[in-house]
């Protein structure tokens, strides 16, 4: 499962608690949409719930646009998948 712009659109609407129009990959979530820190926390919680990945605390303040969130989420998903596959392989050779 990969994160796409449509997913970020859903997360932003949850975070903003209102419909969002015209969300682009480079939209600055804080400056252009007025998202605040509470909205960012709501968005992170929803991302973690949906994808089962944990965004590192030090990374969260650097995520300013949908493209940044998509890249971070997909990297975490890929790393989690690789780690799971490695553990499965280790189990087969034990």
Architecture overview:
The chain has helices spanning 5-16, 37-51, 66-92. 57% of the residues lie in helices and 0% in strands. The chain has a single domain (5-92), classed as Orthogonal Bundle (Non-ribosomal Peptide Synthetase Peptidyl Carrier Protein, Chain A), CATH 1.10.1200.10. The protein is mainly α. It is globular and about 35 Å long.
What is the tally of helical segments?
Answer: 3
Cα-atom radius of gyration: 15 Å
List low-pLDDT spans: none
| Average pLDDT taken over every residue | 89
What coarse outline follows from CA principal-axis ratios?
A: globular
As a percent range, the share of helical residues equals: 55-70%
As a percent range, the share of strand residues is under 5%
Secondary structure tally: strands: 0
What is the CATH topology assignment? Non-ribosomal Peptide Synthetase Peptidyl Carrier Protein, Chain A
Output the keywords.
94 residues, mainly alpha, 3 helices
């Amino acid at each position: 499962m990969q994160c796409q712009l449509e997913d970020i659109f859903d997360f932003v609407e949850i975070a903003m608690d209102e419909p969002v129009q015209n969300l682009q990959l480079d939209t600055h979530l804080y400056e252009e949409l007025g998202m605040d820190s509470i909205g960012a926390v709501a968005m992170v919680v929803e991302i973690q719930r949906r994808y089962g990945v944990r965004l590192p605390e030090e990374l969260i303040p650097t995520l300013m646009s949908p493209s940044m969130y998509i890249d971070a989420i997909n990297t975490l998903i890929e790393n989690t998948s690789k780690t799971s596959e490695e553990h499965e392989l280790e189990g087969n050779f034990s």
